[in-house]
Amino acid sequence: MASVGRPKASLVLSVDERESLSRWARRAKTAQALAQRSRIVLAAAEGLTNLEVADRVGVSAHTVAKWRARFVADRLDGLLDEPRPGRPPLISIDQVEEVIVATLESTPVNATHWSRASMAERSGLSKSTIGRIWKTFELKPHRVEGFKFSKDPLFVEKVYDVIGLYLNPPETAVVLCVDEKSQVQALDRSQPVLPMMPGMPERRTHDYFRHGTTSLFAAFNIVDGTVISSIHRRHRAVEFKKFLTKIDTEVPADLDVHIVCDNYATHKTPLVKNWLAAHPRFHVHFTPTGSSWLNQVERWFAYLTSQLLQRSVHKNIQTLEADIRAWAAGWNQNPKPFIWTKTADQILESLARLMKRTTGAGH
């Protein structure tokens, strides 16, 4: 049967082109855009169709068609993003590659990461050129983000369990995200805070006095956003049991209680297990180890920190605890539930892609 569709431009590589493309595609840390385009061209040169290349590389057929055509028209230079109208570019693809590789695979002397100035000095290019290269290939040496891959052997099962509660809460039951914010400090600045004035931000001293710590227990209702909270000076199993008792008294007796919490040892002591056994309407769902981002109450704690704790001044524990209680009461006057949209499958697919990009796993 004759093939259908638009005929593809023939794609034949020279020895030098194949060597360059193979080198770019093999680099474990090369900018992903250039590495991906190189793999597209190498696969296309094998005579594969656009759909076959797309399936192998993990992109759309439209993307394959774009970079196949760009390479046929401009060869290696075509794998760079299109230049803006005006004067022809004065830097070569080899110079671009050198900047990318140096950014990803080395660090400057006496520094943990490159700046535009230090990379410009190393490469002989201007700071603005370095900035454009980094922007094109989405490189941001000045930024860093935290991550942690869970090693929980039941990770997948726990993700499905917790996300299932978020997306389909059971009827005649409440779902509460529970955790403790421990070691909340009562901090007092060494000198009075200077208030904000026109043309001048609020000012505070860098040093402070510590006046003790307290712990906040909170249960976030995923449906209506209300929070049951309790403050204790310590955060042992004894205090956690007291908090469960408070939840039991505040949730109507005809409703089951589903609790989402982490694997902290306090939540699994015999004292707590015995209390749960005596209260069968309580059902505990543990998030995977190292996955606190799955617990919605953590987002509520973040609001509390940014809106109250981060810039507050407290001369003793009592005033700190009073302010926390008042803030929580104010929240409950106009509660805001968090809208969870991602399914468990979408989360697991995102994590698989991240692991594949960062560690080479997931093949």
Primary descriptors:
single chain; alpha/beta; Nucleotidyltransferase, domain 5; 2 domains; 5-stranded mixed β-sheet; 44% helix; extended
Account of the 3D structure:
The structure is a single chain. The protein is of the alpha/beta class. The protein has two domains: 1-79, no CATH class; 156-345, 2-Layer Sandwich (Nucleotidyltransferase, domain 5), CATH 3.30.420.10. Helices cover 44% and strands 13% of the residues. The protein has 13 helices and five strands. Strands 3-2-1-4-5 form a five-stranded mixed sheet. Helix 10 (270-277) links the parallel strand 4 and strand 5 (282-286). Helix 1 (15-26) packs across helix 2 and helix 6 packs across helix 7. It is extended, with a radius of gyration of 28 Å. Residues 1-5 have low confidence and may be disordered.
Topology:
Blueprint: H1 15-26, H2 32-45, H3 50-57, H4 61-74, H5 93-105, H6 116-123, H7 127-136, H8 155-167, E1 173-189, E2 208-221, E3 227-232, H9 237-250, E4 256-261, H10 270-277, E5 282-286, H11 297-309, H12 317-333, H13 344-359
Parallel strand pairs: 1-4, 4-5
Antiparallel strand pairs: 1-2, 2-3
Helix pairs in contact: 1-2, 2-3, 2-4, 3-4, 6-7
According to CATH, what is the topology of the largest domain? Nucleotidyltransferase, domain 5
How many alpha or pi helices?
Answer: 13
Distance between the termini: 35 Å
Report the uncertain regions: 1-5
* Cα-based radius of gyration, to the nearest Å: 28 Å
Query: Tell me, what is the CATH class of the largest domain?
Result: Alpha Beta
Provide the structure class: alpha/beta
The H-level CATH homologous superfamily of the largest domain, spelled out, is: Ribonuclease H-like superfamily/Ribonuclease H
Shape: extended
Spatial order of the strands in the main sheet? 3-2-1-4-5
- Average pLDDT works out at 80
Give the tally of β-strands. 5
> Helical content, roughly?
40-55%
Order of helices and strands: HHHHHHHHEEEHEHEHHH
CATH architecture of the largest domain: 2-Layer Sandwich
Give the biggest beta sheet.
Answer: 5 strands, mixed
Number of domains: 2
| Strand percentage | 5-15%
